[in-house]
Amino acid sequence: MNWEVATVDDVVDETARVRTIVLDVPEWPGHRAGQHLDVRLTAEDGYRAEREYSIASAPGEPVAITVERLEDGEVSPYLTQELRAGDGLELRGPIGGHFVWGPENGGPVLLVAGGSGVVPLRAMLRHRLRSGTDLPVRLLYSSRTLDDVIYREELDQASDGVAVVYTLTREQPPGWTGHARRVDPELLEEVAWPPEDDARAFVCGPTSFVETVADGLVELGYPPVRVKTERFGATGVK
Amino acid sequence: MSFISRGFRGRRRDPDADPSRVPPGQYVTEGFPVLSAGPTPHTPLDEWTFSIVNGDERKSWTWEEFRALPSETATVDVHCVTRWSKLDTIWEGVSVDTLLEEVEYDAPYVLAFCDGGYTTNLPIEDVTDGKAWVAFAYDGEPLDPEHGGPARLLVPHLYFWKSAKWVRGLELRDENEPGFWETYGYHIYGDPWREQRYSGD
């Protein structure tokens, strides 16, 4: 798979620590919702660092990635603080074919996100909207605080057939009536499609979150093959 | 002239790591990230077996039988395709050579199969002559389910997806049939030193 230099078309601040980078990729072969891409940074002395990021945009839209800044990171501070419109960014992709969804994969669909794990799931939601399918989707999205919710405006305007359920684990604004705890088996049972609906589940977030949710769904009666996971580890691999 | 990322200097976060041990595009981590495609299987040990499948023949070990086989300690560096490398990891496991001693074979490939339906393909010479183990302990402790316990394949000279978690057996094969990630565009062989991440690399 070849590297190519994309051009940054726009940067959008999603939260204080999260930025979306919209890219113009001349030779992009197209992607599926849920796939990721590789980014490679090269310093003047030739030093390089590579990371992979989930694609945030739907198939057919300009390629975008949404990056959370890790304070001890090497690549994410550059992408979220230094990179600006007009800059080049070397990348290749798309990569991955397991954690993907399109209308042809059917539904109903259960999306469960922890923190920036919402990024590939957002690509699926946008793909659903653009494709015009009425397959129903539920998104359960766990964030630390309301200010940490990525794509909040977009998710609050969710289209017919899409239900978004937030849970805020660290701090809730005054008057918050939503969930206020980490995702646990009871919360999953409340939000998830019952197993007899044969839902397709996609779970993305930190490892401990994904372990809890995936185990919980299997406990509820979801067949393991219906539960697709994407994890990022303690060191911020993604 | 290759591309330069404007304003990027890099943190060079591995000052202590011996560069000759870190393949291209990798960085050294102290953590042990977890990556897998689905829920973590939890097969009870009294239902667990390990099998070598050779055509119609099948040699199987129960957990007790498997653990009674001679085991080895392997101190190795591991390299994940998602770019983390972890140096001097300490495993205990049964050499694949020990398991293959029980069967007559001349197949050039194996397909590892696992709980959860995961598979990965390897040339036979990459799992023999002391190059691969079925590991059941990490850092002196039973292997955690998140990291592939009760047992995972350990093939440290290839990208870590080849070290299949929750492994339940090896099927000897005449053809190099792509496994799970290999059918999704990952490299058929996966040598980190040649940076064989994806098909065509």
Task: Please outline the major beta sheet of chain A.
Answer: 6 strands, antiparallel
Number of β-strand runs of chain B = 11
Number of helices of chain B: 3
Indicate the overall shape of chain A. globular
- Average pLDDT reading of chain B: 94
Nearest-angstrom radius of gyration of chain A? 18 Å
CATH class term of the largest domain in chain A: Alpha Beta
Strand arrangement, largest sheet of chain A? 4-3-6-1-2-5
Q: What would you report as the Rg of chain B, rounded to the nearest angstrom?
A: 18 Å
Which structural class do the helices and strands of chain A define?
alpha/beta
How are helices and strands ordered from N to C of chain B? EEEHEEHEEEEEEH
How many angstroms does the end-to-end distance of chain B come to? 21 Å
In DSSP terms, counting alpha (H) and pi (I) runs of 4 or more, how many helices of chain A? 5
At the fourth CATH level, what is the homologous superfamily of chain B?
Oxidoreductase, molybdopterin-binding domain
Please report which band the strand proportion of chain B falls in: under 5%, 5-15%, 15-25%, 25-35%, 35-45% or over 45%: 25-35%
Largest sheet of chain B: 6 strands, mixed
What portion of residues of chain A belong to β-strands?
A: 25-35%
How would you name the CATH homologous superfamily of the largest domain in chain A? Nucleotide-binding domain of ferredoxin-NADP reductase (FNR) module
Q: Supply the CATH class of chain B.
A: Alpha Beta
Describe this structure in words.
The complex is a heterodimer of chains A (238) and B (201). The relative contact order of chain A is 0.16. Chain A is an alpha/beta fold. In chain A, the strands form two sheets. In chain A, strands 4-3-6-1-2-5 form a six-stranded antiparallel beta sheet. Chain A has a five-stranded parallel beta sheet with strand order 9-8-7-10-11, sandwiched between helices. Chain A has five helices and eleven strands. Chain A has two domains: 92 residues, Translation factors (Elongation Factor Tu (Ef-tu), domain 3, Beta Barrel), CATH 2.40.30; 130 residues, Rossmann fold (3-Layer(aba) Sandwich). With 201 residues, chain B is mainly beta. Chain B is built from three helices and eleven strands, in the order βββαββαββββββα. The model of chain B has no long low-confidence stretch (mean pLDDT 94). Classes of the chains: A alpha/beta (238), B mainly beta (201). Chains A and B meet through strand 3, strand 4, strand 6, helix 5 and strand 11 of A and helix 3 of B.
